[in-house]
Amino acid sequence: MSNTGVVLASYGRGVLVQAAGGTLHCGLIGRKLRLVCGDQVTWATQEGADTPSVKSVAPRRNLIERIDARGRAEAVVASIDRLAIVVATEPSPDWYLVDRYWAGAILKDIEVLLIVSKVDLGTQNQQSEIDNYRRLKLSILEVSSSHAMGIDALRGALAKSVTLLVGQSGVGKSSLVNALVPSAAAQTAELTRDSEGRHTTTTARWYQLEADSAIIDAPGVRDFAPPARIVRAAERGFIEIHALSVKCRFNDCLHLEEPGCAVRLAVTQNVISPRRYESYRRLNRLYLEIAT
Ligand SMILES: Nc1nc2c(ncn2[C@@H]2O[C@H](COP(=O)(O)OP(=O)(O)O)[C@@H](O)[C@H]2O)c(=O)[nH]1
Ligand SMILES: [Mg+2]
Ligand SMILES: [Zn+2]
């Protein structure tokens, strides 16, 4: 039997791994190895040691990073299939944040789902934005954890894949995990304890849904870092801007101040939502700051 499994939570000094017969704390050999939730690892117990250590990590399919207090990118989660962006009536949605998550996911080739949570409170303050996202063909599900609405549809949408939940604090992410995973409370208790049983904060926790699906709650990924490669890439994260850019006079148009810009024309005509365009401009500024 091979000693392989997925990292459920990372504590800095070690990781909690899902093994065939249960969970297992593993130490790390070599300080360069920074493991995150979602990493596939193999482990072994070296001669003379009483605890197992991680031996190797499988190549990551993708990596989600956040910006830490010093402005540096810090790895949080690896190898996800989908980013589920959660919004709610309360706290009132930060649509720029939603656009940033969406653009970041497009640039990383990760599927996106918008979860409109707490629909029992109504969706009045969100309707026009939700309608616009629908027009842009973003997948959207409306749910309420407290009223058990839309939970089965959500479970269906998450099948056979690994989904990372992101969104403002208080939108109902942990409540969704609890509604989807009956044993979540017990798992949370285990996921917040390191090998010595101390309580530690982890930025991401893996919850198994079915044998082949999981959901990751990552309370600290509000400042999800967009991939900082090239400024130009920001455009691809906004599908309606990307689609129109072929009509701009300059083929390297950034849609900021350039003459003959089809995107800015579309914004003045409300064909592209001015708010979405403002998201694009903000993300562009962010890229410029990172690049310089
Ligand atoms: N009315 C209503 N309140 C909810 C719902 N889901 C969560 N809440 C409440 O919203 C607050 C924040 O929920 P929580 O799951 O901790 O949000 P998180 O910070 O995103 O993990 C809590 O007081 C929950 O009871 C819902 O579907 N309807
Ligand atoms: Mg939470
Ligand atoms: Zn343009």
Give an overview of the whole structure:
With 292 residues, the protein is an alpha/beta fold. The chain has three domains: 4-57, Nucleic acid-binding proteins (OB fold (Dihydrolipoamide Acetyltransferase, E2P), Beta Barrel); 78-223, P-loop containing nucleotide triphosphate hydrolases (Rossmann fold, 3-Layer(aba) Sandwich), CATH 3.40.50; 231-291, Orthogonal Bundle (Ribonucleotide Reductase Protein R1, domain 1). It has helices at 95-107, 127-135, 151-157, 173-180, 184-191, 239-244, 262-268, 274-291, and strands at residues 4-10, 14-19, 22-28, 40-44, 53-57, 63-67, 73-78, 82-88, 111-117, 139-142, 162-166, 205-208, 214-217. A six-stranded mixed sheet has the order 10-9-8-11-13-12, sandwiched between helices. It is globular, with a radius of gyration of 21 Å. Bound molecules: guanosine-5'-diphosphate, magnesium ion (MG) and zinc ion. The site of guanosine-5'-diphosphate (GDP) has 14 residues, from helix 4. Guanosine-5'-diphosphate binds next to helix 4.
Total strand count, please? 13
Order of strands in the sheet with most strands: 10-9-8-11-13-12
- The radius of gyration is 21 Å
**In the CATH hierarchy, what is the superfamily of the largest domain?**
P-loop containing nucleotide triphosphate hydrolases
Pattern of helices and strands: EEEEEEEEHEHEHEHHEEHHH
Number of helices: 8
CATH topology of the largest domain: Rossmann fold
Each distinct ligand: guanosine-5'-diphosphate, magnesium ion, zinc ion
